[in-house]
Specification:
Largest sheet: none
Structural class: mainly alpha
Number of strands: 0
Distance between the termini: 33 Å
Radius of gyration: 19 Å
């Protein structure tokens, strides 16, 4: 039981740090401009649009990750972390170490995805 509590504390620390990093990255991206607004020809316009699309995709991914981290931290604070939200069984330590946002055990996650 002590090992499980230590693992959860370690994961919480990792999640808090990663959450801060992602929030800072999103804040920087909000203030940066992808282009300077000067389009000289069609190729520049295509490149500019591609960069904007890529930036939007990266931001969506980071926002999705941020939500997963917030959910995991909420479960930790409630004492519900590490327990499958579907079957109520403990989520394996290996799964939590590799995917700290996991809310379901691997069996329930596979069933959820189908």
């Amino acid at each position: 039981m002590k090992q499980r509590a230590d693992l959860i504390d370690k994961i919480k620390h990792t999640l808090v740090k990663r959450k801060s990093d992602v929030e800072n990255q999103l804040a920087r991206q909000t203030h940066e401009k992808v282009t300077d607004g000067i389009v000289q020809d069609t190729a520049d316009e295509v490149q500019s649009l591609s960069m904007q699309n890529l930036q939007s995709s990266i931001q969506r991914t980071e926002i999705d990750e941020l939500h997963l981290m917030e959910d995991a931290l909420t479960r930790i604070n409630r004492g519900e972390y590490g327990v499958c939200i579907d079957c109520g069984e403990p989520i394996s330590a290996k799964r939590l170490e590799n995917f700290p946002y996991a809310a379901r055990c691997i069996i329930c996650q596979e069933a959820f995805e189908q």
